[in-house]
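Holo model, X2X. Inputs:
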Amino acid sequence: MKLFRTALMAAACVGILSAPALAAYKQEYKLSVVPAATSGWGLSATYFADLVRERTDGRINIKVYPGAQLMAGKQTSELLLVRRGAIDFALASTINWSPQVQELNLTALPFFVANNPDRYKAMDAIEDGKSGKMLVEAVEKTGVKFIGWGENGFRELTTSKGPINKPADMKGMKLRVCGTPIFADIFTALGANPQAINWSEAVTGFQQGIVDGQENPTNGINITLQIWTWHKYHTDWHYMIDPLLLTANSKVWDSFSKEDQAILMECAAEMEKYSKALSRLGFDDGSSLEYLKSINKVPAVTDPFKTMEEKGMTIVKFTDEQVDEFYAATQSVRDKWTKEIGEELVKAAEADMKAAQ
Ligand code: X2X
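Output:
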């Protein structure tokens, strides 16, 4: 008995009984990003990784792998690789994961989110509301951990031919899209000729002129890429938005202490503010610029329209009548994809967006 008590005390002293042994942390965690490190999306990932390193005193060392390099360019394989653990973290676009998670097509419904008086409030309302919870559940059902939101932004059209004022102006235009099915449907409905090309090869496609245009967010992608080098027309139509999902492989997430999980969540919330400010800069009431100033992270371009014009781009900002025409032309896409996404989720999103206006 005495011997047993002594053994028990010794065990308690070395902490065997008092604290569960922590799984060893990896020396480096890989965070995947599809576009370049200099894109808004890449900057957001680096911001998160730096915050985490700092706030965990280096216990969690995240390295950003931009350019879809962890999936050999095939952007729609990312979710699979996070699930398998080949990728530890991803700041992922809903677009790239929606082939596997149908619900994530929600914000790609054409002229859906921006069809509200304040399109950014509408986006936030989805993320903060019932529909956002449903999206997170759908993502986590695949076995990955959702940590927080980011934002690539509303996707605008850039073309070498133009300007585009009505669907007929897009007739037969070869437009690069990613290989996600809803895009083929949208651009086919508008009379264009969509070409599915991975982002990793898209820029070469612009250089060689094998496509007449593409669509991507203005601040995060188009400006950082200097899209005016190839495309002289910018169509500001906000036809859909691309929120980002900060996620982790479940086993990796479970291996972190509760304290470190809380730090990761906290850093994700900071990253969301930064990522949204980068995406919305120049398109809101000035609050994004104020925020970026407060964290000392103002990017080179703060007035995107002025910059694009200076670079020789012709900008068409859609009027309400133009939106109506494009809305009508894409009705069949919303009908088909509402069924794929789930009517309940689409209704919940409509209610969330309406309540926030
Ligand atoms: O492929 C694209 O257009 C990009 C970079 O925006 C995404 O990965 C969705």
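The chain is about 45% helix and 20% strand. Strands lie at 29-32, 62-65, 89-93, 144-159, 174-177, 193-196, 213-217, 233-249, 314-317.
Archived with the compound record.
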